[in-house]
């Protein structure tokens, strides 16, 4: 027997669970969330402890969204009683470029924050060393500091959104695989391993499994998957790296590295952005790479000796990216009742806000937020010859 819902959400990760929560707050009365794994699982991109949250971005469009981003998390914390956001402050650091005319690696972030009205401090090498003596950096290193930055406990956020949605009457169906979608004017049929369901609206938050559903949705843009790795290191002096003493950070050198204070595990967390281990949806290995771990440990030994030590734990996740590595956040052209999100490997910090935008799109038909940059009609989506650029969009 086919069941009918007002809205179906595909995927119960960070964004899907947020969409379910915000749909319930928007008055949607019969919402179903379909998830192929357990609820609050560690098999997608939301199973680790932490994701960076900050205002520094490469485009002002993202910076303009950060006030609403923080407000969304504040509301979830108030309603759930569960701390999700940990403010630590944040650093963007850049070693000196080659030559006096070398590029200012932080200019793009400074310009975007200026345009977006975000506050920050410029730090000289001496100021950086004085404020955070944990860092060992070469002369000429510059930094931007943001007081608002910190981390989102991403797994806890999924638990909070899911619990609030369940309490509001949203139905979750775990261990249920979506096998196809039929989209028609004013409604959809979602085919699942547990039978078909009918709905008036659909939100697709399937992360790196989006590619499997794109033909049914009438989408055909390139979605590139890359297995990325984070490492936790048993720090030599972990008390110097607690969230009250040490910020999140991004190192903009020849390679982009990023890291966290000690949180969730008894060690500092570090990763390289865009390791570029490209895979298919079926070809994920879920296996950490020893050489990647050693490169991260060498970086810590050179620049953050208080964090250096033996490897403690490694984890692998997947970046799923359109060619320009910007978000996809839009309704399907010609079908305003079907909304799609792709986080391009940097969506965790915006998860609750994105969930509210998706709920707005399929209930009210619009959103007060400027999401034009993330359109499904932009060249990176519509032009098969668009040159891919997977640079840092953290």
TrEMBL record:
Keyword field contains Cell cycle: no
InterPro entries with a match to the protein in the record: FAD-dep_OxRdtase, FAD/NAD-bd_sf, MTOX
Pfam families found in the cross-reference section: DAO
Keywords from the named record: FAD, Flavoprotein, Oxidoreductase
Domain FAD dependent oxidoreductase: 8-361
UniProt GO MF annotations: flavin adenine dinucleotide binding; sarcosine oxidase activity
Cofactor list: FAD
Name the record gives this protein: N-methyltryptophan oxidase
Phylogenetic placement of the source organism: Bacteria, Bacillati, Actinomycetota, Actinomycetes, Micrococcales
């Amino acid at each position: 027997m086919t069941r009918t819902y007002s809205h179906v959400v595909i995927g119960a990760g960070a964004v899907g669970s947020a969409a379910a929560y915000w749909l319930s707050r928007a008055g949607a009365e019969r919402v179903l969330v379909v998830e192929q794994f357990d609820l609050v699982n560690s098999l997608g991109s939301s199973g680790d402890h932490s994701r960076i949250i900050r205002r520094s971005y490469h485009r002002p469009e993202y910076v303009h969204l950060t006030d609403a981003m923080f407000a969304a998390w504040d509301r979830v914390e108030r309603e759930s009683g569960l701390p999700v956001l940990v403010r630590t402050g944040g650093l963007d650091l850049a070693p000196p470029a080659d030559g006096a005319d070398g590029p200012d690696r932080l200019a793009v972030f400074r310009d975007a924050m200026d345009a977006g009205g975000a506050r920050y401090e410029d730090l000289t090498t001496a100021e950086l060393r004085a404020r955070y003596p944990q860092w060992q950096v070469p002369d000429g290193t510059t930094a931007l500091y943001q007081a608002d930055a910190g981390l989102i406990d991403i797994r806890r956020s999924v638990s909070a959104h899911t619990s609030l949605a369940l309490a509001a009457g949203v139905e979750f169906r775990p261990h249920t695989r979506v096998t196809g979608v039929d989209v028609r004017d004013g409604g959809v049929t979602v085919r699942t391993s547990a039978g078909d369901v009918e709905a008036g609206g659909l939100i697709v938050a399937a992360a790196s499994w989006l590619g499997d559903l794109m033909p049914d949705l009438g989408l055909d843009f390139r979605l590139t998957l890359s297995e990325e790795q984070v490492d936790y290191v048993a720090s030599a002096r972990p008390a110097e790296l607690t969230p009250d003493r040490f910020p999140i950070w991004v190192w903009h050198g020849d390679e982009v590295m990023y890291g966290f204070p000690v949180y969730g595990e008894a060690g500092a967390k570090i990763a390289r952005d865009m390791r570029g281990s490209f895979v298919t949806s079926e070809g994920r290995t879920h296996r950490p790479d020893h050489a990647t771990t050693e490169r991260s440990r060498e970086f810590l030994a050179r620049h953050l000796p208080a964090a250096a030590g033996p490897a403690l734990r490694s984890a692998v996740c997947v970046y799923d990216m359109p060619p320009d590595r910007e978000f996809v956040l839009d309704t399907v052209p010609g079908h305003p009742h079907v909304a799609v999100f792709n986080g391009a490997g940097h969506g965790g910090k915006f998860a609750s806000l994105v969930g509210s935008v998706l709920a707005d799109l399929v209930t009210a038909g619009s959103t007060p937020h400027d999401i034009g940059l993330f359109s499904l009609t932009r060249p990176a989506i519509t032009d098969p010859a668009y040159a891919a650029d997977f640079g840092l969009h953290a």
